[in-house]
Amino acid sequence: MRYLRHRTALRLCAADPTHRFHPEADTVPDDGICTVCGGALYQRDDGDHVRRLVGEHEARLEPVAQHYAQQHLLLELDASGTSAEVTSRAVIALRERSR
Ligand SMILES: [Zn+2]
After folding, report:
1. CA 26 – ligand 1 centroid, Å
2. Which residue intervals of the chain are DSSP H helices?
3. In the chain, domain spans
């Protein structure tokens, strides 16, 4: 999923798409102008690409999830929120299961 966040946040230069800016790695110019060549920056519409990647990821995950579910070793939980919140939910769920 980190890859998906990276792609969706990426800003590309309209004049030269090899000039790329990512908020986590670079300073995205506030004025939306490429600092390399002065071209306009834009955010690519990756909706279809992201949906396809998520679909592929889920297709690969499903057989693994079914395998562990059949052995009663699959624990599902809400993975929304911060990593600390998800970790806390996972620890609580594992403790409840081990009782
Ligand atoms: Zn540029």
Report:
1. 14
2. 2-9, 47-70, 83-98
3. 2-73
